[in-house]
Design brief:
single chain; mainly alpha; Arc Repressor Mutant, subunit A; 2 domains; 3-stranded antiparallel β-sheet; 7 helices; 61% helix; rod-shaped
Length: 165
């Protein structure tokens, strides 16, 4: 930032502070006008001092906020997931995972699904997550092997001890 910009920015901030002081002081008969003018000077000084990068970020945020208000209405702000989201390209992947779970006696890992079904790891994870959402699988963590394991109770062997009770 140039020194002239810095001087102008701090000058505007100081002028805004003086106007706010004048508006708050009972000595001067000026009231609301001093608060409005002081706030405007203060914001203008902060805008100058913010720098080019921060100003462009603020502009982009305000533009996105305005577009969101236009497209969704003024009172409704939907929650969005930030970051890349994995979309299943094969709609039958969960069915293929269920068939694999039956062959593997009810327990699968992400790596197993990826290798056996010849899909990328992200797709395997998304397919297993879909099985969890549908209620077909339960996610667990195997401490000894150090990896996530998905249990499909429909395909696991029944425990003989539980059957005798």
């Amino acid at each position: 930032m140039k020194s002239s910009q810095r001087i102008v920015g701090w000058g505007l901030v100081a002028l805004g502070a003086v106007n706010l002081f004048v508006g708050a002081s009972p000595i001067f008969p000026i009231g609301i006008e001093a608060f409005v003018l002081g706030g405007a000077f203060f914001v203008a000084g902060a805008w100058v001092l913010a720098g080019k990068e921060l100003r462009s970020t603020i502009r982009m945020g305000l533009r996105a906020w305005g577009e969101m208000r236009k497209s969704h209405g003024a009172r409704q702000f939907p929650l969005r997931r930030i970051g890349p989201s994995t979309v299943l390209t094969d709609p039958l992947l969960p069915v293929r995972i269920l068939k694999l779970a039956r062959l593997e006696h009810g327990t699968l890992t992400v790596a197993q699904v990826a290798m056996e079904l010849n899909v990328p790891l992200e797709q395997a994870q998304a397919g297993l997550d879909e099985c969890v959402r549908a209620g077909n699988a339960l996610p667990d963590y195997d401490i000894h092997r150090g990896l996530a394991v998905y249990t499909f109770s429909e395909f696991t062997e029944p425990d003989p001890q539980r059957l005798s009770d």
